[in-house]
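As promised in the previous annual report, we have extended the structural survey to additional targets. Below is the entry for LacI family DNA-binding transcriptional regulator.
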Amino acid sequence: MKKVTRKDVALEAGVSETVVSYVLNSNRPVDGRKKARVLEAVRKLGYVPSPAARSLKGKAARHILFVVDDLVSEYFGSIMGELEKLVVGQGYLFSLASDRGDEGFVDTLCRWSFDGIVIGSATISDADIQRVIDTGMPTVILAMNEYPRFEGRYGQVFTGLRNGTHKAMDCLRRRGRKRIAFVDSFNATGRSVNRSGYRFMGYLECLDGGDEIVVDGCSDSCALRQKLADVYEATRFDALFCRTDRMAAESMLALDAMGLAVPRDVSVVGVNNSRISMYTTPRLTSLAIRKADVASATLELFSRIKECCDPQVLTVQLETDLIERESV
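The corresponding structure token record, generated without further manual editing, is:
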């Protein structure tokens, strides 16, 4: 038999999942008629909250979950490390979960109780983000894309990717580069670049009427090497702005195999200022996200979400730093 979820209760009662959460947790005032419909739906459907949620009722879970695309990402590991510094001795746990792009993943997530959820996935759907917010658990989005306005109360940390991309593009322009290509991340499905991503939006804004040059839809290193060769043959690009440092390092290897030297023939810039940027040859110029500020802003937003009663989006705007090295 299919397990009854809060979503089922919400549909039966004709309310949002957020209202169901408020009624079951008794942590927000709810209109009497709505409350009665929720309780009747719970009785009718035989809904039973998860054991984890029941055991944590009335106290903070002290457990923060990161929903990400890449479980081995240095970027998210660094942010978690900065968070641990801020809450040392307070008994917090931090977990990573990979967004698998299926409904079952979000169903599982919503059955647990967390003190906070950080959404750092660039591919999770808007509908799934709304479902997470509807649980009533404090939710903070690390804004890598341009999102719609969601219903309910949640937070967004703007890490400065859009303006940071402007810095990277300005740096390349100062080096005399005119045909700058955007290199997207690997993906198994061969999808095109996400045009609502802040990195790509910032790239487009800096073209000054020039043609966009995009290297996307690559599943692995071999595909990237072939795509770069094809695009270079067609455009003779003289610079690459890469979505991540990993893609920048992969691109530098491909350029070397093509007989092109960095930065003599092609300048290369990455994003994240990860450790790999120090070990490429030449060393990689990279856009650094202020991870300690991201961690501090996330905790600030969790606190503000818990204190605020009205449905609204709470935001923090951060800046980035361009670390210039020999690859430009």
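The chain has twelve helices and twelve strands. The radius of gyration is 23 Å. These points will be discussed at the next consortium meeting with the crystallography subgroup.
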